[in-house]
Design brief:
Blueprint lengths: L1 H35 L10 E5 L7 E6 L12 E6 L2 E5 L5 E6 L6 H11 L3 E9 L2 E8 L16 E11 L2 E7 L6 H13 L1 E2 L4
Antiparallel strand pairs: 1-2, 2-10, 3-4, 4-5, 5-9, 6-7, 7-8, 8-9
Length: 201
């Protein structure tokens, strides 16, 4: 009788343990799915249109305004340090680089090749299109089994790289090398998507 009660208790604990494990896994799965969800739509409610023709490109671009809640200033600052390079700053948390690539059309493919050569990062594509990639980059920390507990901090960042052709010239638009938080990169991807010739307005 005692063995029977002990066995029943063991089975009950086993079911509870399996149930908790499944719940934990499903919570992890939900968190992972949330991380992988990217929202890039055509709603530019929190954006302002900027005419780029005064900076040498006959195009419009939508940039986040002060309502986008990223610490953005009201007016974007556009720096044109070299003939083929532009830097678009919208506050301290949003810097978009633009480069004139002349007639080179396979910039996104080349960027993916470069990313595949980087051995210290794990890259996970969240958007993988011919003219734009958006990805999560995670630093691979080797030897973490024997490392101090402070090494266990996740080193994740988000990046976007796109190309657009305006009047026969291909432009590369990309986030900074160190990347940003996901919310900033989503806004940046929307800006890249909006970069169009003035004739297409």
């Amino acid at each position: 009788m005692l063995k029977s009660v002990a066995f029943k208790l063991f089975v009950l604990l086993l079911f509870v343990g399996v149930g908790l494990t499944n719940t934990s896994c499903s919570d992890d799965d939900k968190e992972s799915e949330k991380e992988d969800t990217i929202s890039i739509d055509d709603d530019y409610y929190e954006f302002q249109m900027v005419d780029f023709s005064k900076y040498g490109i006959n195009a419009y671009i939508q940039l986040p305004d002060e309502t986008a809640n990223i610490g953005a200033s009201t007016r974007p600052e556009i720096i044109h340090p070299e003939e083929h390079i532009w830097q678009v700053d919208v506050g301290r948390n949003f810097t978009l680089h633009i480069e004139d690539m002349a007639n080179i059309r396979d910039n996104v493919k080349e960027e993916k090749r470069e990313l595949s050569r980087k051995k210290f990062f794990k890259v996970k594509y969240l958007i993988d299109e011919p003219d734009m990639i958006l990805y999560q980059r995670e630093l691979i920390v080797k030897g973490t089994d024997r490392a101090a507990s402070s090494v266990g901090v996740e080193h994740k960042s988000y990046h976007v790289f796109g190309q657009k052709t305006i009047d026969g010239i291909t432009y590369v638009l990309e986030s900074r090398e160190e990347g940003y938080e996901k919310i900033i990169i989503e806004l940046m991807a929307k800006s890249i998507k909006s970069f169009k010739p003035k004739s297409a307005k």
